[in-house]
């Protein structure tokens, strides 16, 4: 599924200097457990962010997929109870892992080029978890051009703790004044978009408070 949010193409400025050549991509995964090598990837969502003339970040585009568990994947009943996913439900319309990962990676590579960046950096809430599943899936399907940095991340747990004294996603989002619906939580699409809103809010607020002097140079 591909959705667009707050698209402002006339205000688009490359992100090449904002994060030292990294393109932030907000990712959330829902899984059948905690082990990225043995437990199934069941949902993945990636939110692309862009920057306007004022060096403010905004949500641009969301890609999300229901994913078929890879052959032999472990599916922990406790994990499925928590996220509410029924892996074999006929109306889940899940796609193979390879299709989901390759489509998202292709879109990210396009954004890297458009933003004149070197590679992507994964943004997430407890981002190390999401990155581990992305890398494991990429390895399983034999991806040769993984756009994400192998280990560097931007984590909204730390950003939320800094900005609001909160580490739980729902509490950080609400502290930022962003609407939160518990009924929608624990789906990759919803959590990725709320994480992206939180990330943009904190980065933009920091910029406002500090009146970043190199801003004009960043947009050049």
The total number of structural domains is: 1
Lateral arrangement of strands in the main beta sheet: 1-4-3-2-5-6
CATH homologous superfamily classification: Ribonuclease H-like superfamily/Ribonuclease H
What share of residues are in beta strands? 15-25%
Secondary-structure content class: alpha/beta
The CATH topology comes to Nucleotidyltransferase, domain 5
Spatial gap, N to C terminus:
33 Å
Class in CATH?
Answer: Alpha Beta
Using only C-alpha atoms, the radius of gyration works out to 17 Å
Q: Which residue ranges are poorly predicted, with pLDDT under 50 across at least 5 consecutive positions?
A: 4-8, 212-220
Biggest sheet layout: 6 strands, mixed
Please explain how this structure is put together.
The chain is α/β, with parallel strands linked by helices. It has one domain: Ribonuclease H-like superfamily/Ribonuclease H (Nucleotidyltransferase, domain 5). Helix content is about 40%, strand content about 20%. It contains seven helices and six strands. A six-stranded mixed β-sheet has the order 1-4-3-2-5-6, sandwiched between helices. Strand 5, helix 3 and strand 6 form a beta-alpha-beta unit. The chain starts with a strand and ends with a helix. The model is unreliable at about 5-10 and about 210-220 (pLDDT under 50).
